[in-house]
Amino acid sequence: MNPREESAAVAERGGHILTELERVGVLGKGVGGETNFVAHENTAIMVGRLYTEFTPKGGVKQPMKLESERVITNVFAELLVDAMQAITAPAAYMQNIKYHSSGTGGGAEAVGDAFATLTNAHGIIVGNQGEASSKVYQSVATLTYTGSFTPQTEHIIMAEADGGSAVDRSLISSQAVGNGDTITFTYTLTVASGG
Fold first, then answer.
1. Cβ distance 175 to 52 under 8 Å?
2. Per-residue pLDDT tens for 94-109?
3. What is the pTM of this model?
4. What separation, in Å, do the N-terminal and C-terminal C-alpha atoms of the chain show?
5. Cα dihedral sign for 18, 107, 173, 146?
6. Residue 8 forms part of a structural domain
7. Domain enclosing residue 177, as ranges
8. Which of 61, 128, 148, 192 is the most buried (most CB within 10 A)?
9. Does pLDDT of 1 surpass 60?
10. Strands 44-55 and 35-37, how do they pair?
């Protein structure tokens, strides 16, 4: 089995694809622990990353931190394949990967995650869209919390305003939030071409 087949097998089992890609030599770790891509002929790797910045009401924004480098969902992989065939609805969804929400769940991240996976979801808001670089898609959204909330422990980004077409669900460090506090979520999707 070649590295791509092994990686696909891990994703199908809902395993942690980055660990498997590191094992077969597609990914390596940099000095700061960040993931580096090791180019292999005829490969393309997609990795979602989630960063957070917490700002207490009336306070100073805390430094941005990397929360997650995990697998994309099965739904997103299927949307991508359909969009490449110019199937209308999936093509439109691909332009709308900007709907963010957070929740209080702690279940392991998995390729089958959906909006319904979130526990006590905190609404859905629209983030902005852009490129962090020519091969890195980015969407940034700031969620403002009102009232009293259980600490936030998860985030999801979706392609539909009603919570459909989940792209990536990420666990985050437990963050207590109170009335007027905000968390800025920055989601990036890196598409690294092969050698």
1. yes
2. 889 999 999 999 998 8
3. 0.76
4. 20
5. positive
6. no
7. 46-193
8. 192
9. no
10. unpaired
